[in-house]
# Entry
Amino acid sequence: MDHLVEISDVSLAYGDKDKTLAVEHLDLKVPRGDFVAVVGPSGCGKSTLMKLVTGLLPPTSGRVLVAGKKVSGPLKIVGMAFQNPNLLPWRSTLKNVMLPLEVTPPYRYEIRRKRIEFEERARALLKMVGLVEFAGSSPWQLSGGMQQRASLCRALVHEPSLLMLDEPFGALDAFTREELWDVLQEIWLRQRFTTILVTHDLREAVYLADTVYVMSSRPGRIISQYEVELERPRRLETSLQPTFVNLVARLRRDIWEQRGGTGATAPKIGDGENECKGS
# Structure
């Protein structure tokens, strides 16, 4: 199988003297074109995983490969979106979306000659997410959900092979969040870029991903893997199916156990548990 991302026996420690292990013996392989989600208790190293894959942090031991090459620094084939859209307030929506084309090789060397072509690409993405009429608007004129749509467009405008999403919808209300699940799913179904989503929202993970990985408490490692055997495109009615509900419950139980069984009562798994294949 062709894996775009391979994390092999990776450990990472923070600090010079009293080192803190963020992740230890972390293994993860993501096939090209797959959509995977990573969940786990707070502080388990999910964001550290993002930094390792994108080259923002080097591992203390082990290796990280992307597209068959060892990651030794920030990658140009990656698009990223975060919980905070971080749109530049002095730029229009269109110009915010075009920013990666101005700074990422090889596009930055072609921006003068191909500006019209690049603008058309950005507008096409904005049209796909329902924002083309707001191309000239400033970020402050957009709602939170609209800003996050623009952030997704910015992450995808340079056609990355890998999209990294760190809690991209975490700050939005439930209705807007669910609406953007469908927006992201539609874009992914059209373009099939490899995607790694880090999220605390277990419903979001099951709704969007092909495979969901659960990380342990710190130091983080993968403790379980679940294949999401739900047809696409998924709709909100999908979240009412026993397969969906039971998989969310299994993920919640895994995380509950990693937290030492504290807090809410252990989640119960229904009769549809055998429909959710895990390892």
